[in-house]
Amino acid sequence: MDINLKNHKTLTAWMRSETRKMISNRYKQTHIAEDMGVSDALVSRFMRGHPVNEKFINKWFDFFVSSKCGILE
Fold first, then answer.
1. What is the number of helices (H) and of strands (E) in the chain?
2. Are 52 and 45 in contact (CB under 8 A)?
3. Cα gap 6→33, rounded to integer Å
4. How far apart are CA 66 and CA 73, in angstroms?
5. Distance between CA 48 and CA 68 in Å, rounded?
6. Which one, out of 2, 24, 42, 66, has a CA that is 20 to 30 A from the CA of 58?
7. What is the pLDDT of residues 3-45, one digit of tens each?
8. Which residues of 34-71 are buried (b: 16+ CB within 10 A; e: fewer)?
9. Is 26 helix (H, G, I), strand (E, B) or coil?
10. What distance lies between CA 55 and its chain's CA centroid?
11. DSSP code of 30?
C-alpha cells in the first residue's frame, strides 16, 4: 500500500485525520477501539497526540485496511 501524505503531514497526523472521519453520531471512538481490539483510553491517548507503541500502529492499520475494504470481522 502506498500512502502519499500532502502538505508535509506526519503519518500519525494522517492517521488521526482518518480516524476522525470514521467517527459519527452512531459510530463513536469507543466502537473504533472495540473493533481494533484496544482500550478506549489508548485510542483517546492517540487522538490527543500522545505517543503510542508499534503494536497500536499495526492494529490501527489492520483495522483501517479492513474497514476500507469492507471486511470488518
1. 4, 0
2. yes
3. 27
4. 8
5. 23
6. 24
7. 666 777 788 888 999 999 999 999 999 999 999 999 999 999 9
8. ebbebeeebbeebeeeeebeeebeebbeebbeeeeeee
9. coil
10. 12
11. H
CB-count burial class (<10 Å; 0-12, 13-18, 19+) for 24: exposed
Residue with cell 491517548: 45
Cell of 29: 471512538
For residue 18 the three cell numbers come to 482518518
First to last CA, the chain: 21
| Length of the chain (residues) | 73
For residue 70, what pLDDT is reported? 61
Place of cell 484496544: 38
DSSP state of 46: H
